[in-house]
Amino acid sequence: MKICVPATSANLGPGFDTLGLAISLYNQVIIKPSKFHSVSLKGEGANNPILKDNNMFIAIFNDFYHNLSNKKRHFRFEFTNDIPLSRGLGSSSAVIVSAIASAYAIEGIKIDKNKLLNLALAYESHPDNITPAVMGGFNVAAVKDNEVKYIKKNMPKSLKAVVVIPNRPISTQLARKALPYKYSKEDVTFNISHSSLLTAAFMSEDWKMLRIASQDQVHQKYRMKQMPELFDVQKTALKSGALMSTLSGSGSTLFSMAFNDDASRIEKELKKRFPHFKVLTRDFNNSGVTIEY
Ligand SMILES: Nc1ncnc2c1ncn2[C@@H]1O[C@H](COP(=O)(O)OP(=O)(O)O)[C@@H](O)[C@H]1O
Ligand SMILES: N[C@@H](CCOP(=O)(O)O)C(=O)O
């Protein structure tokens, strides 16, 4: 059985805890019945002791598996991770979503994607990564009575994501604590207007509007000053023709969106200016988590 889940970029500037989209960069796990419990890791985090000794995927999988099954079985888990850890590309959401999906799949129980999303919400309270991780595409999401209410739009093939992944992580938990407790009415109004405009721009495919609509006053400046080079990355991406360039989730990745024809020039420029960071160009993902039995 094979589960594949995409990376996600949340917030998209002003849409704090609300907007997110899925990128064609994946974590994959193959699970096989086995005589003993065993784990193999390839790719991101392969040498990280946390993933070997205290793996969040295995813990969540076990929570669900023990509730769903009355059999005592052991498994071999073969992970191939392309989503970097704590870089703002939704690695924790990918783990949560794929672990829950795996526990159902290994028991042969079909799980509706809406149910999967709401189960994932118990592990990550903000819905902006888990929604695109499950559904794919661009999503606007809110939580009401422990349920995610969302609207999805498929991303067109004419656009690409260009991501700049720094060599240092930022923990989402700590980055959330770094934000102010209170905001001025001006900042709140700024974000409501820009987030609404951004959503309308995605829905109507008015891509030229993104540069203005993706501005934010609520989280980026507080987080990016911990890694001031990120301001230069953002400026370089926009100067090279990106439609928008925003801190991906809580960072440290900078996400930019561009027309296909502009993406390779933007990638080249970013690689030249920031040789110590990883720069990737990817399509968007519209299918979300996939399960192969
Ligand atoms: N492939 C993985 N396997 C197991 N746990 C993971 C994996 N990727 C991330 N995690 C867990 O998620 C944490 C990172 O979460 P977080 O700081 O929210 O980063 P991100 O911005 O990438 O979502 C890691 O410290 C680890 O506990
Ligand atoms: N809205 C959240 C998004 C966190 O995304 P991640 O990919 O950094 O986990 C936030 O901004 O805290």
TrEMBL record:
Superkingdom of origin: Bacteria
Reaction catalyzed: L-homoserine + ATP = O-phospho-L-homoserine + ADP + H(+)
GO molecular function ontology, one term from the record: ATP binding
GO annotations of cellular component type: cytoplasm
One Pfam family from the record: GHMP_kinases_N
Classification via NCBIfam families: thrB (TIGR00191)
Name of this protein: Homoserine kinase
Keyword annotations from UniProtKB, A to Z: Amino-acid biosynthesis, ATP-binding, Cytoplasm, Kinase, Nucleotide-binding, Threonine biosynthesis, Transferase
Task of the protein: Catalyzes the ATP-dependent phosphorylation of L-homoserine to L-homoserine phosphate.
EC number: 2.7.1.39
Coiled coil: none
Binding site for ATP: 84-94
Ubl conjugation among keywords: no
Entry keyword 4Fe-4S: no
One of the protein's GO biological processes: threonine biosynthetic process
Positions of the GHMP kinase C-terminal domain: 201-275
Location in or out of the cell: Cytoplasm
Domain GHMP kinase N-terminal, residue spans: 66-137
InterPro entries named in the record: GHMP_kinase_C_dom, GHMP_kinase_C_sf, GHMP_kinase_N_dom, GHMP_knse_ATP-bd_CS, Homoserine_kinase, Ribosomal_Su5_D2-typ_SF, Ribsml_uS5_D2-typ_fold_subgr
Pathway: Amino-acid biosynthesis; L-threonine biosynthesis; L-threonine from L-aspartate: step 4/5
Protein family per UniProt: Belongs to the GHMP kinase family. Homoserine kinase subfamily.
Gene designation per UniProt: thrB
